[in-house]
């Protein structure tokens, strides 16, 4: 029997619930009491966590998936902990970096027209100390779930995954979409300097997708009907723009940030 790989992200999950203007009480009835067994099992199988949280309160509205395997904290402990205490378990360099990245995220949010806020996505990473004492690198993808009557973010929907296999010591990344201009930001944890990286061109992303599928440069050249030297040049540009030297790690990062 042929197997099929099924992946989830916040765009797909948000298709269940469209961002609307709702009161907190309505949210508690429609979201916080959600008991979707199928969704929960899919999240567990893929080792993903789904979280609904408010930027204005120290509580989680909903926790789904087996978060113990994802971030080292059980759903029950996270519920008691709340977002503020969760942040206190970040590795200190990651906490400092995340604070800087969140400034960029907030500035970016203000640039998005009100009628396009539902397109907003923020994907970033940080290192977290789990309840078992182990450090895990976490990827978090945020989208806006609901707005209040003043078009202020009321609740975020976050998809959380464990990306400890990605070796980016001393670096954190933030990829922002939803405005007319996408942004990719890298922070150096040693200097706390944030750098906006140059985005890949459409052709570079196309080649990166083929590389991610295991195609060799010769195959990509033939498939796209371009010179082999042109493929090599695009591959070099991809590494230079991402400030990386290892092609496999560059592809890992692009996949995590959902750029390919």
Automatic annotation (TrEMBL):
Q: Which residues form the HTH luxR-type domain?
A: 193-258
Which Pfam family would be a valid example here?
Answer: GerE
**Does the UniProt entry include the keyword Membrane?**
no
Query: Is Cytoplasm among the key words of this record?
Result: no
Gene3D superfamilies the UniProt entry points to: PAS domain, Winged helix-like DNA-binding domain superfamily/Winged helix DNA-binding domain
Keywords attached to this Swiss-Prot or TrEMBL record, sorted alphabetically, are: DNA-binding, Transcription, Transcription regulation
| The protein's name | Helix-turn-helix transcriptional regulator
Provide the species name: Flectobacillus roseus
């Amino acid at each position: 029997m042929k197997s099929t790989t099924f992946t989830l992200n916040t765009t797909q999950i948000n298709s269940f619930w469209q961002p609307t203007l709702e009161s907190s009480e309505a949210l508690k009835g429609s979201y916080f009491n959600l008991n979707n067994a199928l969704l929960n099992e899919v999240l567990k199988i893929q080792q993903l966590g789904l979280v609904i949280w408010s930027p204005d309160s120290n509580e989680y509205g909903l926790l789904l998936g087996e978060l113990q395997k994802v971030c080292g904290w059980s759903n029950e402990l996270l519920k008691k902990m709340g977002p503020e205490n969760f942040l206190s378990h970040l590795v200190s360099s990651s906490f400092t970096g995340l604070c800087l990245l969140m400034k960029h995220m907030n500035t970016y949010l203000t640039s998005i027209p009100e009628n396009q806020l539902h397109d907003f996505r923020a994907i970033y990473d940080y290192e977290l100390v789990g309840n078992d004492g182990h450090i895990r690198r976490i990827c978090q993808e945020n989208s806006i779930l609901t707005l209040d009557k003043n078009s202020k973010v009321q609740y975020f929907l976050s998809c959380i995954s464990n990306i400890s296999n990605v070796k980016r010591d001393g670096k954190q990344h933030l990829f922002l979409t939803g405005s007319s201009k996408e942004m990719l930001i890298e922070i150096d944890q040693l200097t706390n300097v944030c750098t906006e990286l140059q985005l890949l061109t459409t052709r570079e992303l196309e080649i990166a997708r083929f590389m991610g599928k295991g195609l060799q440069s010769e195959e990509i050249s033939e498939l796209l009907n371009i010179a082999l030297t042109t493929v090599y040049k695009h591959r070099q540009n991809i590494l230079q723009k991402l400030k990386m030297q290892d092609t496999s790690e560059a592809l890992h990062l692009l996949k995590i940030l959902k750029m390919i």
